[in-house]
Amino acid sequence: MSTKVQLRPIVEEMEESYLDYSMSVIVQRALPDVRDGLKPVHRRILYAMYDIGLRPSSPFRKSATVVGEVLGKYHPHGDVAIYDSLVHLAQDFKMRYPLITPQGNFGSMDGDQAAAMRYTEAKLAPLSLALLTDIEKDTVDFMPNFDGSRKEPKVLPAKLPSLLINGTMGIAVGMATNIPPHNLAEVCDAVTLLIDNPEAGIEDLMKCIKGPDFPTGGTLYGIEDVKQAYATGRGGITCRGKAEIVESKEDKFQILITEMPYQVNKAMLVQKIAELVKDKKIIGIKNIRDESSKQGIRIVIDLKKDASPNKILNKLYQVTDLQTKFHVNMIALSRGIQPNLLTLKQILEEYIKHRQVVVKRRTEFDLARARARAHILAGLKIALTHLDEIIKTIKRSPTKEKARVNLMKKFKLTQMQANAICEMRLEQLAGLERKKIEDEYKEKLKLIKELEKILGDPKEISNLIKEELVLLKNKYADQRRTKIYRNPVEEIGKEDIVEDVPCIVILTQGGYIKRMPITSYKIQGRGGKGVIGNRLKEEDIICQILACTTCSRILFFTDRGRVFQLKAYEIPEAGRTARGEALVNFLQIEPDEKVTTLVNLEVTESSQYVFMTTGLGVVKKTRVQDFQKVRRSGLIAIKLGKNDLLRWVKVTSGKDEIFLITKNGKCIRSKEKDVRSMGRSARGVRGINLSRGNEVCGMDVIRKIKNQKSKIKSNKDRMLLVISENGYGKKSNLKEYHVQHRGGKGINTAKITKKTGKLIAGCILNPEDRDLIVVSKQAQIIRLSLTQIPTLRRATQGVRVMRLNENDKAASITVL
Fold it and tell me: Which residues are catalytic?
């Protein structure tokens, strides 16, 4: 035995072999045919079941029987691959219109595997007959199976456009396909529209096909995204599960999930939510349980009493598969051999061409059968007309073959007619039977005429396609399951998922900041030592505590007169003893620039101006609107004089009063209107005349009483609170402070002694103010009720509010 070895460059051999392999995978396994929408394994399963008689009206047969039939005759790629494909065709949560009717455990949306093939049973679903009908009428081409022992169809006749109705997903070599399922009625209407108007565009077709229709329901967002996917063959469509917020009788809320995004594992979704709750990435969920049954999906999420349902739902959309993106990639085989990226219109056009060929071949097949039968009936009519002579001729013939020849010669019959006459039964000679032959002959002639008319006019073929679609639509169509919203889903921002709850923001003199829940500090009695608030760097002190909510817009004013902006939730939350994060990580401040004031900017009718005060007593007010758009690089807020620093900023109405307090115990009360509104780059005017060595240590606003419903009936309901560096403090009634013009020296507000030390802060108290937080330089923090601080005359030194350690001093205060 001689062997011939042919030398080839290895690169060429590898390229050619890989190309052959990839095309084999593309054509024979991974991609569907655009004509019937099926991959080879699915087509072989349906044809094998049809061939062995597993019709919808037949009894169920074991799935193992079907797998063995397909494996042995058509698809030699392993029983597991075949059974998995059979299960897929039967799962109603994957197939919009299942093609196989299952019996037994065929898996679930929770990712449960189907039972072994020896336990389950199956038969063709009624809709499958629409794909297989007329296959015996030479409507499609057949090819040899893998071993040449029998024939299998290259494509099915497919009375319905299965590629769009059920969609498909497949990964080939170097390409993949992902076509969503659609509503049967809508697709049939689109085919009819395109037959009537071949020039119809995507917008016309979308009047029929609104968008994908998933078996699991859900909601699609963005009609423009759907349009792009249909027009180009590729695109991403946002899909959400159906979730609603329900209020229970106990004033508690639940989130009910009753529909899932397509191809999402329900059990994995529940597990993911549970993990997020456990890791405290979602806060506010009390319990989650899956109450799904045969009647439908039902996932119940119980929320805590103080939780924000909308925030939690938005968080679920953002971090779980309750919201997904379906990536459309409509690649299919044209003519069964060529993979192409197809638009919606091209898929429908390819299907229409296929149906035109099928209907034409079916008509030709029926016409040939009708003509053959008419030909035989014509011979039978001749025999019945010359019955006696026919009988004599047959009786005189020595053999059957000779009788056939004699009949052909004497009566000018064809061999087919002579055979039919020889095989006539005596019962057909009865009068009624003779009438049946004549009637059937007339019917065949009429049928031949109709079939010839169909073949002679392409419009007749198109009308037949439409009529069959209408019949199937009326028989199998159902209501759309997936809702579609024209507008795209709004991008879920941080503010949409952050619960707007009270919090405090702590700023240190060293430039560290953190956010904490307001519940971190419990109320204590007056004179207590408090609790540790921050683990500070050496020589760092807390300079401000700002009460706000997590969604508040906070302005950061620096000592150089610049302003920056952050949302409170952008500041990392930290524990009570944590140091926090350096401000330079969030704001573009200079190395020697410090943030001195935080402002919770809430723009309301009473918030008209931003009122600024420097350490040397310069004041200035600027319209709030000038700070609505603060760049990441910051804005100029005030032009400062030499050796002066911006220290306080408050939001005012334009009709308020301003209190300035100095370290040496002086204060001045003046009207805000004494200060005219200025631009951001202006310097400002004198607010208080300071003596040498004195500085402003506090500034606050006396709000104007807005309406009768206000808790503040007069300024008698307000107090001035001052705190000294040694932890002493007091409240004084505002009636003791008369209004002066700005720029004056002010009056005494506290008796400054060695025991009390100089004042470090002062503020106006309103009736709704409840608690006081005092922070020391060594990061001791105490929270106490304001009712524990006595009301004293303005020239007194006050009482001990906070007991400080040796060498520690009070640094800042915040009123809640």
Answer: 119
